[in-house]
Amino acid sequence: MFEANQLSVAIWLPIIGAIAVLATGNDQRAGLARVLALLVSIVTFLVTLLLYTGFDKASAKLQYIEDTPWISALNINYSLGIDGIALLLILLTSFITIIVIISAWKVIREKVAQYMAAFLIMEGLMIGVFSATDAILFYVFWEAMLIPMFLIIGIWGGPNRIYATIKFFLYTLLGSLLMLVALVYLYFAGNGSFALADLYTIKLTLAEQIWIFLAFFMAFAVKIPMFPVHTWLPDAHVEAPTGGSVVLAAIMLKMGAYGFIRFNLPITPDASHTLSGFIIALSLIAIVYIAMVALAQTDMKKLIAYSSISHMGFVTLGLFVFNKMAIEGAVIQMISHGFISGAMFLCVGVLYDRMHTRKMSDYGGVANTMPKFAAFMMLFAMANAGLPGTSGFVGEFLVILGVFQVNVWYAIIAGTTLVLGAAYTLWMYKRVIFGAINNKNVETLNDITNREGLYLLILTITVLVMGLWPAPFLDVIHTSVDRVLALSSVTKL
At what angle do helices 84-103 and 30-53 cross, to 10 degrees? Predict the structure, then answer.
């Protein structure tokens, strides 16, 4: 029974667990809410880990398939199944949720049960997005996921949280409505089915494909976010609590890229090739221009937020050059960025909890009072800059190599981010960590606690393991990437 419904268990266990956490009541029982949330997140991670251990890496077919009628009148099913790409993203989701819960252990002191429950619900819904093989089920998970994040920013966020939440919600909702329109069109253009496998076989003219591609593009480009629909992200990051920023950067941004893989490339292959130059241009602008914008930031969270947009440009660039190495690099970049960006936001959170400011000018000389923290942040800063031996190097290097095989100039332009990334990351690190102590409050800072050291150490291990031994991550996606390339090959119209 468990093996046949493993994906459903991974989706609904955290959601049911969230209800149990909410049942603990008010903040007088906050300790129970924390422990219960951590236990649920750990068990969920173990369930997703079993997905990895039982996954057949040699097969290109979807695995752990579940298919149950849901809305029979419209031929909508509760259909689940994953390939290697989805598997890695599910593992990332369950792993990051544990880190977020540990990081909020002492920081969140009001509405603790509600905070923990919101992240557990969001975890289940995000796993649902990566697992759904029915387009409407995908859409339901996709939209429902906005609600807990909306609440997390709106309730536990900063002073301008209402503005940030409304902007975040409107951008993502409007883009998603266009996706729904495209799905309805495909339903009637095909055989009256929302199953992704059926949508992949629909014969469309190039004009139809272009319109559907653009509808999907708006939904997924906003989520990544791509230039020029990226402006909601810095505001959301600045106002979100640390845990919200971590999940937003580590997981939610990846859903846009995953949408391109699941919808744009296989459903509209001809349009994907026709418009690839447009996507590549936007990706290169994001990589270079947004990196320069990051150089101009004085707020640490904003700098890391713009850094995320620049790094995600590598992902879309890798996907739309239709090269196996580049696509594999894009997938690895998604996972690596999840670890590194999450770690960077957690480091900012550690400082903010002590100083209640994110301005770099308010710091300086932190290494004098927080040497352990300085060591951890140095590693994550170097990983963010793409240092060989860290996970940040693997994905970007594969993308550049793959792009080089297609167009040398694209690779050269993309390669500039290795310089710009090092510039803005190390500039921030130097101003915050090194130099003389300019703020008397820095003199009184205490180094990281055991709890903070625990989650930073866990992320350190993942960044180094992935950087030094990427084979376990690459082996599981080889056949899945082959399948993506086969489905996205140009058809004869």
Answer: 160
